[in-house]
Protein backbone atom coordinates (compact mmCIF):
# COMPACT_ATOMS: atom_id res chain seq x y z
CA UNK A 1 0.00 0.00 0.00
CA UNK A 2 1.10 3.53 -0.73
CA UNK A 3 1.75 6.05 2.02
CA UNK A 4 3.48 9.36 2.55
CA UNK A 5 4.95 10.85 5.70
CA UNK A 6 5.68 14.50 6.25
CA UNK A 7 7.36 14.48 9.65
CA UNK A 8 7.11 18.22 10.30
CA UNK A 9 3.75 19.90 10.76
CA UNK A 10 5.41 23.32 10.76
CA UNK A 11 8.61 24.71 9.30
CA UNK A 12 9.78 28.24 9.99
CA UNK A 13 12.56 29.85 8.00
CA UNK A 14 13.91 33.38 7.68
CA UNK A 15 13.47 35.16 4.38
CA UNK A 16 16.49 34.65 2.16
CA UNK A 17 17.55 31.43 3.88
CA UNK A 18 17.34 28.03 2.22
CA UNK A 19 14.30 25.92 3.03
CA UNK A 20 13.67 22.19 3.14
CA UNK A 21 10.33 20.44 3.56
CA UNK A 22 10.72 16.74 4.22
CA UNK A 23 8.83 13.82 2.71
CA UNK A 24 9.28 10.07 2.86
CA UNK A 25 7.15 7.55 1.01
CA UNK A 26 6.22 3.91 0.72
CA UNK A 27 4.96 2.40 -2.51
CA UNK A 28 5.05 -0.86 -4.40
CA UNK A 29 7.24 -0.64 -7.45
CA UNK A 30 8.63 2.57 -8.82
CA UNK A 31 7.13 5.70 -7.28
CA UNK A 32 5.61 8.66 -9.01
CA UNK A 33 6.16 11.57 -6.59
CA UNK A 34 4.63 15.03 -6.50
CA UNK A 35 4.69 18.24 -4.52
CA UNK A 36 1.70 20.54 -4.31
CA UNK A 37 1.19 23.86 -2.53
CA UNK A 38 -2.06 25.18 -1.09
CA UNK A 39 -2.77 28.80 -0.28
CA UNK A 40 -5.68 29.76 2.03
CA UNK A 41 -9.10 29.03 0.55
CA UNK A 42 -7.54 27.72 -2.64
CA UNK A 43 -7.09 24.38 -4.29
CA UNK A 44 -3.77 22.64 -4.69
CA UNK A 45 -1.21 23.96 -7.14
CA UNK A 46 1.18 21.55 -8.80
CA UNK A 47 4.86 22.36 -8.11
CA UNK A 48 6.88 19.47 -9.49
CA UNK A 49 7.03 15.75 -10.07
CA UNK A 50 9.47 12.87 -10.22
CA UNK A 51 8.69 10.03 -12.59
CA UNK A 52 12.09 8.84 -13.71
CA UNK A 53 15.49 10.18 -14.67
CA UNK A 54 17.59 12.80 -12.86
CA UNK A 55 17.17 12.62 -9.09
CA UNK A 56 17.07 16.42 -8.82
CA UNK A 57 13.82 17.77 -10.18
CA UNK A 58 13.20 21.45 -10.80
CA UNK A 59 9.74 22.93 -10.61
CA UNK A 60 7.74 26.12 -10.39
CA UNK A 61 8.67 29.25 -8.42
CA UNK A 62 12.30 28.19 -7.91
CA UNK A 63 11.46 25.01 -6.02
CA UNK A 64 13.30 21.76 -6.54
CA UNK A 65 13.15 18.32 -5.00
CA UNK A 66 15.66 15.54 -4.58
CA UNK A 67 14.61 11.92 -5.02
CA UNK A 68 16.58 9.47 -2.89
CA UNK A 69 15.62 5.88 -3.57
CA UNK A 70 17.68 4.31 -0.80
CA UNK A 71 16.15 6.62 1.82
CA UNK A 72 12.71 6.62 0.12
CA UNK A 73 12.67 10.37 0.42
CA UNK A 74 11.59 13.26 -1.78
CA UNK A 75 12.45 16.46 0.06
CA UNK A 76 11.36 19.83 -1.31
CA UNK A 77 13.98 22.57 -1.37
CA UNK A 78 14.48 26.19 -2.31
CA UNK A 79 17.79 28.05 -2.11
CA UNK A 80 16.33 31.36 -0.92
CA UNK A 81 12.91 31.57 0.75
CA UNK A 82 10.42 34.36 0.05
CA UNK A 83 7.66 35.57 2.37
CA UNK A 84 5.22 34.70 -0.43
CA UNK A 85 6.29 31.04 -0.15
CA UNK A 86 4.38 30.82 3.14
CA UNK A 87 1.70 28.20 2.54
CA UNK A 88 0.73 24.57 3.15
CA UNK A 89 2.82 22.04 1.24
CA UNK A 90 1.74 18.52 0.39
CA UNK A 91 3.83 15.62 -0.81
CA UNK A 92 1.98 12.92 -2.75
CA UNK A 93 2.76 9.52 -4.19
CA UNK A 94 1.11 7.16 -6.60
CA UNK A 95 2.04 3.79 -7.90
CA UNK A 96 3.37 3.44 -11.40
CA UNK A 97 1.11 0.51 -12.29
CA UNK A 98 -1.77 -1.60 -11.13
CA UNK A 99 -5.27 -0.97 -9.90
CA UNK A 100 -5.55 2.45 -8.34
CA UNK A 101 -2.35 3.62 -9.97
CA UNK A 102 -3.79 7.05 -10.66
CA UNK A 103 -4.86 7.59 -7.03
CA UNK A 104 -2.76 10.15 -5.23
CA UNK A 105 -1.90 9.45 -1.61
CA UNK A 106 -1.10 12.64 0.25
CA UNK A 107 0.95 13.41 3.30
CA UNK A 108 -0.60 15.38 6.12
CA UNK A 109 0.95 18.61 4.93
CA UNK A 110 3.65 20.92 6.24
CA UNK A 111 2.90 24.54 6.98
CA UNK A 112 5.79 26.69 5.86
CA UNK A 113 6.17 30.13 7.38
CA UNK A 114 8.80 32.47 6.00
CA UNK A 115 9.68 35.17 8.49
CA UNK A 116 10.56 38.61 7.09
CA UNK B 1 -5.95 27.02 -21.20
CA UNK B 2 -8.61 27.51 -18.58
CA UNK B 3 -8.04 25.62 -15.36
CA UNK B 4 -10.27 23.19 -13.54
CA UNK B 5 -13.50 24.85 -12.46
CA UNK B 6 -15.79 23.75 -9.68
CA UNK B 7 -19.28 24.91 -8.85
CA UNK B 8 -20.57 26.00 -6.50
CA UNK B 9 -17.66 27.35 -4.47
CA UNK B 10 -19.59 27.37 -1.21
CA UNK B 11 -22.59 25.39 -0.08
CA UNK B 12 -24.53 25.11 3.16
CA UNK B 13 -26.83 22.14 3.62
CA UNK B 14 -28.80 20.55 6.44
CA UNK B 15 -28.30 17.03 7.76
CA UNK B 16 -30.25 14.49 5.75
CA UNK B 17 -30.25 16.52 2.55
CA UNK B 18 -28.35 15.60 -0.58
CA UNK B 19 -25.92 17.67 -2.59
CA UNK B 20 -24.44 17.62 -6.09
CA UNK B 21 -21.08 19.20 -6.88
CA UNK B 22 -19.84 19.89 -10.37
CA UNK B 23 -16.39 19.87 -11.93
CA UNK B 24 -15.23 20.93 -15.40
CA UNK B 25 -11.77 19.62 -16.23
CA UNK B 26 -9.06 21.26 -18.27
CA UNK B 27 -9.85 20.94 -21.95
CA UNK B 28 -8.50 17.66 -23.29
CA UNK B 29 -8.20 16.00 -19.90
CA UNK B 30 -10.24 12.84 -19.69
CA UNK B 31 -9.39 11.75 -16.16
CA UNK B 32 -11.22 13.40 -13.28
CA UNK B 33 -10.56 12.58 -9.63
CA UNK B 34 -12.33 13.76 -6.50
CA UNK B 35 -10.80 14.28 -3.06
CA UNK B 36 -12.16 15.25 0.33
CA UNK B 37 -10.07 17.54 2.53
CA UNK B 38 -10.77 17.89 6.23
CA UNK B 39 -8.60 19.14 9.11
CA UNK B 40 -8.79 15.77 10.84
CA UNK B 41 -8.37 13.33 7.95
CA UNK B 42 -6.39 15.44 5.52
CA UNK B 43 -6.73 14.76 1.81
CA UNK B 44 -8.53 11.55 0.97
CA UNK B 45 -9.25 10.07 -2.42
CA UNK B 46 -12.93 9.59 -3.25
CA UNK B 47 -13.03 8.27 -6.82
CA UNK B 48 -11.65 8.65 -10.31
CA UNK B 49 -13.41 8.67 -13.64
CA UNK B 50 -11.92 8.16 -17.05
CA UNK B 51 -13.95 8.19 -20.25
CA UNK B 52 -17.23 8.07 -18.33
CA UNK B 53 -16.18 5.00 -16.33
CA UNK B 54 -15.30 4.88 -12.67
CA UNK B 55 -11.77 3.55 -12.62
CA UNK B 56 -11.08 3.61 -8.90
CA UNK B 57 -12.91 4.24 -5.66
CA UNK B 58 -11.65 5.18 -2.23
CA UNK B 59 -12.92 4.03 1.14
CA UNK B 60 -16.06 6.10 1.42
CA UNK B 61 -19.61 4.91 2.06
CA UNK B 62 -22.06 4.40 -0.74
CA UNK B 63 -23.67 7.77 0.04
CA UNK B 64 -20.84 9.22 -2.01
CA UNK B 65 -21.26 8.70 -5.72
CA UNK B 66 -20.19 10.30 -8.94
CA UNK B 67 -20.43 10.25 -12.67
CA UNK B 68 -18.69 11.60 -15.71
CA UNK B 69 -20.27 12.87 -18.88
CA UNK B 70 -19.15 12.47 -22.48
CA UNK B 71 -17.55 15.94 -22.39
CA UNK B 72 -15.47 14.81 -19.35
CA UNK B 73 -17.35 17.05 -16.95
CA UNK B 74 -17.99 15.28 -13.69
CA UNK B 75 -20.42 15.47 -10.82
CA UNK B 76 -20.29 14.01 -7.37
CA UNK B 77 -23.32 13.44 -5.21
CA UNK B 78 -23.59 12.97 -1.48
CA UNK B 79 -26.91 11.72 -0.15
CA UNK B 80 -28.23 11.80 3.41
CA UNK B 81 -25.68 14.36 4.51
CA UNK B 82 -24.02 14.02 7.89
CA UNK B 83 -22.21 16.66 9.93
CA UNK B 84 -18.94 14.84 9.24
CA UNK B 85 -19.34 15.44 5.51
CA UNK B 86 -18.43 19.08 6.03
CA UNK B 87 -15.24 19.48 4.06
CA UNK B 88 -13.50 21.02 1.09
CA UNK B 89 -14.19 18.85 -1.94
CA UNK B 90 -11.49 19.05 -4.57
CA UNK B 91 -11.67 17.96 -8.14
CA UNK B 92 -8.56 17.28 -10.21
CA UNK B 93 -8.09 16.52 -13.86
CA UNK B 94 -5.22 15.00 -15.77
CA UNK B 95 -4.17 13.59 -19.05
CA UNK B 96 -4.08 9.87 -18.62
CA UNK B 97 -1.76 8.93 -15.75
CA UNK B 98 0.08 12.27 -15.58
CA UNK B 99 0.13 14.95 -12.89
CA UNK B 100 -3.22 16.13 -11.63
CA UNK B 101 -4.37 19.73 -11.73
CA UNK B 102 -6.77 20.81 -9.03
CA UNK B 103 -9.73 23.13 -9.01
CA UNK B 104 -10.37 25.68 -6.24
CA UNK B 105 -12.72 23.31 -4.43
CA UNK B 106 -16.25 23.43 -3.10
CA UNK B 107 -16.56 24.21 0.59
CA UNK B 108 -19.51 22.19 1.94
CA UNK B 109 -20.89 22.98 5.37
CA UNK B 110 -23.49 20.64 6.84
CA UNK B 111 -25.54 22.03 9.73
Structural descriptors:
heterodimer; A: 116 residues; mainly beta; six-stranded mixed beta sheet; B: 111 residues; seven-stranded mixed beta sheet; four-stranded antiparallel beta sheet; 11 strands
Tell me about this structure:
The complex is a heterodimer of chains A (116) and B (111). Chain A has strands at residues 3-5, 10-14, 19-21, 24-26, 31-38, 44-50, 56-58, 64-68, 73-78, 87-95, 105-106, 110-115. Chain A is an all-beta fold and 116 residues long. In chain A, the strands form three sheets. In chain A, strands 2, 5, 6, 10, 11 and 12 form a six-stranded mixed sheet that branches. Chain A has a four-stranded antiparallel sheet with strand order 3-9-8-7, with no helix packed on it. A two-stranded antiparallel ribbon of chain A has the order 1-4. The termini of chain A are far apart. Chain B is mainly β. Helices cover 0% and strands 54% of the residues of chain B. Chain B contains no helices and eleven strands. Chain B has strands at residues 5-7, 10-13, 19-24, 31-38, 42-50, 53-57, 64-68, 74-78, 87-94, 101-102, 106-110. In chain B, the strands form two sheets. In chain B, strands 2, 4, 5, 6, 9, 10 and 11 form a seven-stranded mixed sheet that branches. A four-stranded antiparallel sheet of chain B has the order 1-3-8-7, with no helix packed on it. Classes of the chains: A mainly beta (116), B mainly beta (111).
Amino acid sequence: AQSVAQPEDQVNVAEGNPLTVKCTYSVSGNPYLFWYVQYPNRGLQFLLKYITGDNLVKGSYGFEAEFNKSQTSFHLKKPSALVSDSALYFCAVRASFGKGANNLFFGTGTRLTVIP
Amino acid sequence: KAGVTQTPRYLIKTRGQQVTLSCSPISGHRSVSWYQQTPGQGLQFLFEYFSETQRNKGNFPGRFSGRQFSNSRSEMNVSTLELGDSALYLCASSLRDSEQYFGPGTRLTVT
